[in-house]
Each structure stands twice: as structure tokens, then as C-alpha cells.
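Quick one - first record:
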Amino acid sequence: MLEQKSAPLTGRPARRREAVSQRSRLREGSPFPLGATWTGLGVNFALFSAHATKVELCLFDETGEKEIERIELPEFTDEVWHGFLPDARPGTVYGYRVHGPYEPDNGHRFNPNKLVLDPYAKAVVGRLGWGPELFGYHLESGDDLTYDERDSASLMLKGRVADLAFTWGEERTPRVPWDRTIIYELHVRGFTKLNPDVPEPLRGTFRGLGHPSVVDYLRGLGVTAVELLPIHVYVDDAFLLDKGLVNYWGYNTICFFAPRRRYASVPDYAFSEFKEMVTRLHDAGIEVILDVVYNHTAEGNERGPTLSFKGIDNASYYRLLPDQPRYYINDTGTGNTLNLSHQRVLQMVTDSLRYWVEEMRVDGFRFDLATILGREPYGFDENSGFLDSCRQDPVLSSVKLIAEPWDCGPGGYQLGRFPPGWAEWNDQYRDVMRRFWKGDDGLLASFGSRLTASGDIFNRRGRKPWASVNFITAHDGFTLNDLVSYNDKHNEANGEDNRDGHDANYNWNHGVEGPTDDPGIRALRRRQKKNLLATLLLSQGTPMLTAGDEFGRTQQGNNNAYCQDNEISWVDWDWDAEGEELYHFVQRLTELRRNYAVLRRSRFFTGEWNEAIGVCDATWLDPHGEAMGPEQWDDPQAKCLGVVFDGRAQATGIRKRGSDATMLLIVNAGHEFVQFTLPRVTGGRAWLRLIDTNLDHVEDEADAARLRFGHVYGVTGRSLLLFRLMRTRRHHHHPPPASRAASKSMHAPSSEQSERRETPTQPHERRQAAAPKEDGTVRAPGRNEQPRGADRRAAERRDAEAGESDHEDDHDGYDEFEGGTI
């Protein structure tokens, strides 16, 4: 064990008598709560460290630059060092120097020459300045077994005692039900930095995000929750600063209780500005979800700096190799892993979560690399201490908990394994939908499973469809526009020779790399963006949009913009006509999801006949309007199908017919023009077209085309359609003549079947769709010519009018035709 030498006390006050008086008034205080707590009569300081031998509280002037006093905490209770200062007030700036053994081979890295930040600090002052003084060992030697005696205080962040008082007024938590939730992922700074409707001093801040123009935009778009990239205090990596870059995303936390000062228009008021933002969003019915990083800290591995946890109690806070505690377990890929198996570390994380819910009034959390949080020394356990703590905690169990269900450790991929009450990012949804619309073969079965909330993954233990958080894009990867505009990543601005970022993106540039003036390519890209957005918002589960995708934001092909705090990452609000059209299209989709409960059911679709109520909840159809069988699911070349979601299906655990609308969704991911026969459904008289991604406008429901049963619709290649059933005025509930025994062939196969059928050996022979004629019309078998575009819409309305007159006089609610009856 090395003999320790304390750093010289700089800036000792000239009036020694005042310092002595301060010490004389020091009281024992309480070990609870941890952190610096203003009681109204003084401040209680409490710091956990199981292996320390002494803890010194260091007080600084209000700028945090000059240390004015050092006070040894007098009491040690239950491994907590504590003391009470009657003369301390909110605004007091402080840090700690923690004494103990410097024995890296035994996992201990105490060095009182290094000022450390209180893990429970509610406010932080200063800016971290990188220098060798921050490291517990002699950085120049490269040997972490050496001991560095240089004082780090001048470079370090410090805590500030916070007065938590805030007038919330009439603020009310929205409590949006999961089935109505639409998440919108954004970066606080990047979302408003270029927004001309936000006053310039507020751009890039919490107040900017809470500005009325921004709140109105979010409400008008139809989202119900914003998911903020990390806003906890985090560190800009030294290697990025050396290249003139920063850690823009913020996945490098050093304090789990304080908001980052950079996101405040007045840094010293970050705490209250965050609360004001929450109030304004809540007033609009929009929830606030925080992306949180409790899996690692900014201190890195054994060669990293001593900023907080490493110098307070390294062996307790971090997972260390059991046989070589000098080294860290690196299941995060960032150098260290927090040890949530330790009760005090678990307490810190849950205390932090409760603080953000109770004090800051957030509505939920998305947990980065959440498998880490469920890890015990033997591996992931869905009954781990952390997951059990959340499940039983009356505060945490009442908010939205979203897991990123993977990490870099062994057995780190745990999609679908989190316990009831949790939702999970579904990367299988992302990949299947990208591949399907790109035109990859053999994906019908997987598409069907993902469209219906991935029941093969999540339908267990009473979990609901909302447990699948569906997304096409996220902060990490291409934007939607870039997904359909680039074949390759273009990360040169990151300074890593384009080696960083994912390579498997399932993207396609549709013929030209990057921007183009080619009208055909631009039209196809527009349609593909609409296809992907429509699929996302019409799928069962919880949809998550990425900020700017609704109007085609680009990052110039950069799929790893974590270090780009500039125009590459900032949302550009200067839209063109295409962006305007796409925005209104997304508005229409969120409106449909909000208005039609069948698009956001709280029960999984099964595709099976419900004998008790005489309804099949989901019926899958081939282009001929016939129920799909194994040969259709197995056909690797098949890229077009339809599905009827029956609103009469049982909606809750009570066995009775539902009263929702019935919807028909048709997708065609192939490049061929496909004729699709619209099926007859019991109780209906026609189909009302709500969405056709091939149209260059958003249809108003009052003027939408009405199409009769049996109509053959020309489905353009790479397009999606949504229809609503128009019900008969006189309807008798007769059982449909379609074979009930065939119902099992109408639903998407299980995951086991899906995997087997993605590489079928015997393609199904399908009828070929008629190709468009030179004049843009199509002749369907036994049908009249169908013009495209505006002429086609007029013909469809004429068809519909005829269909309504035909069907309004039906006695039994259905007629026979070649596609059968549902």
C-alpha cells in the first residue's frame, strides 16, 4: 500500500478564526438521505464509501474556482460518511477528497489529491478541463500502478447545493395509456438549434423545447411523448475534443441526478428550466421520457480519469474481474460496467429514477444497454435485483420503462426476456421492415409477425402488444431520408476514416448515391419513406418516430453522428414541398391511429377463429382475396399480401364482440404492379380508401374513394394501402360461409415457422398481374380497364357508387364471390 500525501490546500481563507468557527459548528448529521440536502436550517452531507478511511468535504467559492475550506466528515454509519453544516446554504459549491488504500491490484484506487464529484449532486458547476491532474496514476508513464500527487480541483466539476423548491402550479401528469402512446425521439439541443420560431437565446435549450411554437408543433404532429437523448451531466471525451468534436449524444454520464447545464439558457438555472419545460409539455398532453445511461460512467477503464465513483469506492461501484480486480469487466464496450449487484449502487440508481419521477416529474425512461441492469455476476436474470426493484417499487412501476434489450457482454441479446411491465426496443421489427420494403425475398411471414406486435417474442406472461417498441430509425443510424438515399455510410466528418458506424443497415439508394434530380428516383424514394412511416404507425405495438423523419431530415449519409454538434445533426426546419407533403402524411397516420382502436389493440392478434363470438380477428389474404395457406407464406418471391383486422373481434378479456372499425391493409414490396381483389366482409357494404402511398396527396376521409367488394385494385409496386370497412345499414349476424377449418392458415406463422419459411424450397406458382398499358391503364381479368392517377380515382368513385346501391339492399350482409367472405 502506497503512503498517501494530501494535496496542499489552495486558497485557504485569510481569516483563520472564521474557518475554526465553521468547524466548531459542524454536527454529526444523518446518513440519510445521501447527497447534499438543504433542510431549511443547514445542509446535511452524506457519502457512501465502504472502503474509505477518511472523507473530507471541500467547500469552494461560488465560481467553483477557489477552495476555501476543507472539513472532515465526523461520522461513519452503515458505510456512509456524514456531517451537518448549519451555516451552509443552497448555492454552496462543494466536492470531496476521499482517503483510503491505493491498491489497484486489489481494486482500490483512492487518491485524495483528486477532487471527486458527489454522485448525488443535484446541480453541477464548472466545466471539466482535461489534463494529467485528473488521473489517479502518473498519466505520462502509462502505468496505472503509479500514484499521482497533483491536485485536480482546478479542472474538476463541482456539486452545488440545490433548493428543490419550484411552483408547479396546475401542472398535471398526462398519464397517456400505453396503447395510445406515440414516442418521438429527439435531442434537446439539435431539435431547436435551427428553429426560426424559437427566440435565438432559447434555441438548443430546455426552454426552447418548451417554447409554445415547439409544443404546438409536437401536438399538431400527433405524438404523445418525447424521448430525450441523455440530459444527465456527461463528459466530452478527450479524444473528441482533440479533434474539435464533442460527445453530442451524451452517452457518457458522470452524474445521474443533475441536468446538463449546456441545455439551459441560463446554466445556473438548468434545474428550474427543465421543470418549466416539463410543465409546458404536460400542459399539451405530451409526456417526457428520458434516455438514461446507468450501465457505465465516464471514468473508463483502469487507465481512465478519477472523477467520482473510481475515487470514492472503486471496488463497490464497478464490476471488476474476480481474479484480477485491477481490471474492469467491460460488458458495455465503454471500459467499465456499473455494479448493480451491490446494494448501494442499486440504491443510487433507483434513488436517481425516483428523483426524476417525483421531483422532476418525468413520465418514464428508456434504458441504454438495459441488459446490463439485469446482469448478476452469473449473467442476465429477469429476476435480478434491479428488475425486481422496479417491479415492486410503487413509484417506478407506475411510469413507462423501456429497455434497450442488449449489451456487448456474453448472452447480451435479451429481446423479449424482460419481465412484465417493461417495453423493449424491437430491433427485429426495424430490420425486417427495412428488408421487406427494400425487396428482400422470403419475408412475408416475418413481416406478418412484426406487423402484429411480434407476438412470437412478447406474447407471454400477460404482456401486451405495447411491449414491442417498433421503430424504423433511431438516433443511432441513418435517418429515414438517408436510409432510402444511400447505399453506404458517409461518416468521414467523424475523423475515423469512415470505419465507425454500422455496416448492416438494410438500406438502398434506389439508383443514385445521395441527392438526385432524377424525378423517377425521387418519386420512388418519397413512396418508400411513406411506406416505412405508414408501416410503423399502422403496426400493432408502440411506434417510435425519430425527430425530423416526418419531413425527410438528412444527415448527409452519416449513420453515426454521435460527435456532430452542428448542421449534420441539427434538425433543419427549412422544408421543401416534398417535406411538407410527408409531414401532412404523418399527421394523417397519427390521426388514424388515434381514431381507430383496432390499429392499437391491447390484445395480440391470433388469426384464429373465435368460436364463442364467431369472428376471426386477423385474416391474411393473397392478391386474389383468398386466405393465405402455407404455400403462399413459403413463397420466397411473394411480396404482396393483405390483412383484414376485424373490429368485431374480442377486444378485452370479456368474451363479446368488439365495436371497432374493420380495416384492410395491403402491402406490395415488389416492383411489379399487382391486381388485388378487395374481399367481402360480413356486415359491410364497401371499402373506404384511407391511405394509398402511391398518391401524391393525403385524402380527406369525406372525399375518399369508396370501392365495392370484389373490385380489383391496381396496387402499384412499392406501395401500401389502408381501407376502412363501410358497414351495411341492415345487417343480420350470420356465420360466414368461409371454412372455419381454414382459419389457421389465415394468420402469420409462429416465429419457429417464420424462420423455417424464410428459405422455402418450393415456390408457389402465382397468377401474374397484368402489366400497365402504354396509356397507363390496366386490364384485370373479367374487369374493365382501370386508369391510374386522377382518372383512376374518378373510376373508383363510380365503382363505389354502384357498389353502395348493390349492397345496401343485401339481406344477409354478404354475397358469394370468388374471394369468399370473411
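second record:
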Amino acid sequence: MSDNRTHATEAEARQLAESARQQEWGDHTFVRDLFLGDLRLGLVHPYPDPEEHIREPARAWIEELREFLRTEVDSEQIDRERKIPPYVVDRLRRMGAVGLKIPREYGGHDFNQAEYSKIMEVLGTVDGSLIALLSAHQSIGVPQPLKLFGTEEQKQRYLPRFAAGAISAFALTEDDVGSDPARLHTSAERTESGDFILNGEKLWCTNGTVAEIIVVMARHTDSGKISAFIVEMDWPGVEVVQRLHFMGLGGIENGIIRFRNVRVPRENLLGQEGRGLKIALVTLNTGRLAIPAVAVGSGKAAVRIVREWASERVQWGQPVGKHEAVAQMIAEITANTFGMDAVSEISALLADREGYDIRLEAAIAKLFNTEIGWLMVDQAVQVRGGRGYERADSLADRGEDPVGLERMLRDFRINRIFEGSSEIMRLFIAREAVDWHLQLAGELVEGDLSLGAKLARLPRVLLTYAVWYPSRWLGWGWWPRYSEFGELATHVRFVQRSSRKLARTLFHKMLRYGARLQRKQALLFRGVDIGAELFAMTAVVAKAQMLARRGDPAALQARKVADLFCRLSRRRVRNLFRDISSNEDARLYRTAREVLDGQHRWLEEGVVELQELARRGSTAESWQPAETPGPEERLESEIGATTADVG
């Protein structure tokens, strides 16, 4: 069998990724400057009051959604039967749930990002499968890139259909293509009429099995460039090969989509030809914000669950919540939920601002909330113990409250992979965080310039760093600066000092490793995580200050939780800085290479070949549990077995 996969060198893959990224920065970008040692506090403080950004139509719609979820959605049934009931989908269509961000002139609700994130948060308290259905359609499906890059004719043709209930999907991933689009091999062949013929197969296409319209990334056979195409699922040659099933999200409609000589009209090219990856990246800048909001909803649900359980469950003469080991988990869940809430909320509010470049805030919100959120859900399961691990329907059968924490755990796990895995997010953030340095001095390190050209540019680079670098050491980051934050001012001062230290540290590593720094992923990841923590601390303090300014009844309690979150975050930051300088990265890498080379196969001795057993056995689709035999059936079985043995 011939190998029709696209092969690309590391340099080619990097060049394609670099050409797809946004080269220019907007006027305002808080996180990018944070990595450069500049705390531009005025971009997030005063923290915008979200109550002023959630309009009355959105409030009414959210309340209707809450009532619908409360009374008509059975999440355990969806998980058990691996299907969202048609009446649930139909009701969502009638509510306009698939047209939340579509402008009113096309029939949609025209909700802003803050309102949309609040809706995703509400869904995050209930059901992951519904989240996948609605967010995959509206965050990365056809409507969002169509709004940003589509022609007016395309908008007039498709946006009203989405507002009326048509579901969409996004098709990029392939069997051999995950985070490396340079290997993409779905092809677009140009015809004499100017139309295109698509051939290929897409994997893990969320909503692909129920979508009416999808956006497909394909490579031109003549130029090798990648473009985005709007494809209707009922066109000849489009085939849903298989619906896929996963650890969680039982009702997700995710599948393999095949294209065999699918004719796509020229007018269905989305955006400029060859700009498909840039369209995908720009779409994801705000599209990623759905997942952080979902994590907040899960966190708020976890706080309620552990509060109720740990108050009622008595062990060793007192509620389990009063035992220190459990109490610490409860406190961390509470503090981290407030942290996730602030990160998600401020990112959504900034996304609605004009002239604000949200790419790093969105990426960090996605990374931070999914990583912290996963630990938080795991802690909630631990607090409930065996009842956290037991399925909700089993709990109900025993007469206990059907708390679906184990389903929440399974559903939440994908968030660290969806829309850019945590590792890819860290690589993306690291690249954007050092962009200023690369624009200034990148060609001196790894460019193709001649020696003379490099020497000509060297004075400007040295002069710029001669001003920039000392300023990363100078500056007052102690009392009484930021005293307007009261007892929380110490945390803002810590952020300011740590931001400058982070900028210096990254610069030192760039000097030491040069172009090789891109391969020091463990080192870069720690720097990214420090930046994420500093962003989260700033957002938390600013939000607590906003609640006090508003006169919110919970303002005092919020300040206490904000203080706890920042204390925990500061400990993580100090550990990350320490690990940048002192770590076992080289030994870990060497050991991993030895494992890949087969030098540690001795450790696998005695392993049952589970994959081989699975290939020989039944699939999850065809396997059904055998009914428990009655006494007569058991007797007949035993007689038969004895006869067979004797025979």
C-alpha cells in the first residue's frame, strides 16, 4: 500500500506555522507586556463591572436556559445512552441556542463575548455533551470565521440558516495531522471553471455527524497552500464514515468525515486563498474562551457539591469538612474557582474591547483554567470518596443523591486537549511571549543575513537592549506602591517584581541557548506557567477590588478568597522560578530517549498485551453484558460444561 501522507521537515513545519501566525500586535496587550517585564495595570484595572456588559436580553435568555437545563435535560441519560435526545436539540434550536453570536440582521441574538461566556459557564455546571454541541458550532465552527472573513454574499446565504438552527463543524485534524498542519493532505484540486475538487478524510470532527455545513481545511494541489472551504454535508461525495466515542462526553457527535471528489464552488472559498491556517488561528483567539468559561461552571458546581457533602458527612465525631486534610482541598477548590472565574471573565471582557489583542489572554485562560480545573474536579471526587467515584445512576438506585462527579471528571478531561492541548498552548504562548525579542534580534541569531548585514544591525540591537535590560532591574516594587489595593497590594507588588524577573530570566536563557532555546520546552513551559500565574493573580485582585467598589455584599469574603488564591499562586511561582535554574530536565530527556530506543523493555516484562486482546475481542459498540443466569440456567450450564469436559 502506498503512503499518501504529506511529509514535512521540521524547518518546513516551523515555516508554515510562522507564516500562519499574526505578525502584528494590537495597541493593547496586557499579557505580552507582562512577559516583557512591564505590568500595564491600567489595562485590567479598574476591572470592568460585568453587570454592565451583560444586557437584559442575555439575562432573560440565560434564565430560560437555566430553567430548561433544570427541568428537561437528563445528563445521566445522555451519558448512558451516548446520545442527546432529539427533543433537547430541537428545543435548543427553537431557543436560538445555535445563533447566540450571530448579528441580529441575520436573525441571531448578537450576544457579545462576555454574554456568550456566561452561557458557557451555565452549561459547564450541567452537561459536557451540550457544551460540545453548542461551543464547537459557535466557537470554531462556520459562523465565527464566516463573520470575520466571509463575504457579504456568504453571510447572507449562511448566517440566517445558522440562526434558524443549522449546526456546523470545523474539519482540520486528520489521521496523521494534529498540531502539525504541515502534514495536512486533504487536497483541493482546481478545475478549469475555478471550482475545487476535495479529496481526503478528517478525524475527530466534533458535530461532524449531525452538522449541515462545515468548514474544511485543504491543501491546494498546485500551490501547496492551505485554504478554508465552506462545505455542505449533503453534497455528493461527502460521507460520515463513523461516529467516535470517548472516555467522557457520551453524547458528543464526533466523527470521521470523508471527501471523495467533492465539488466546491469557487464562491465557497472562505477568506483569501492560502490563508486557511491564519483563519483558524484568528478564529481560535476568541473561540478558545468558551472552554475557560466552562471550567468556571464546573468549579462553581464543585464548590457546592463539596460544601454540602463535607457539611453533612460525619466521620470520627465531626463533619469531614472539619478534618484538616479535607478542609484544605475544599479551600483550594474555592480559591481556584475564584481564580478561574477572574481569568475567564476579564479575558472575555477584554475580547469585547476595540483595539485589544486577545491572543495571549485567550491562550492563557484556556491553559490555566483547564489545568487548574482538572486538579479541582479531581479534588472534589476525592472529598466525596467512594461516592465521588460511583456513577450517579448507581447512587440513585441506592437511594442517595445522584451527584454525577465521576461524569464531570470524565467530561472535563478532554478540556486539556480540545482546541489546542496544554503542551501546544504553552508552545504557542512561549512563541508569542518572545516575539518582541525575535523581531529585534531574531535574524542575528538564526536569520539568513550575511555577516555584513548582521554587523550593520548589531548597533541598533545593542542600543535597544542597553535601555531595556537595566529597566528590568530598576523600579520600585515594594511598599507603598499599589496601596490602593489595601491588604491585597502585597500581591500586586509581587506580580510587578516577578514580571521583571521573568523578563530577565527569559532574556538570560535566550543569551545562553540562542536558537536552541526553542528545544528547551520544559524550561519555556515553566516561564509560560509563571506568566499565567501572574495574569491570574492580577485578575483576581482586580476583580476583588471591583466587587468592593460596587458595594457587593460578597466583597469582604471575595477579598479573603483572593488573598488565599494569591498566596497559593505565589508559592507556585517561587517553585517554578527555582525549577528553571535547578531541574532534572536533561536526565528526564535522556531516559525518555532510552525508553524509545528500547533500552528499558525489561521494565515491561509480564505485561499483558491489552491492545492485542482488544483487537481479538469485541468492540465497545457490539459488546453487551450477559444477563445474569437463573438457577436453572446455571445448572444447565454446569451440566453442559461437565459433559464437554468428559467428551
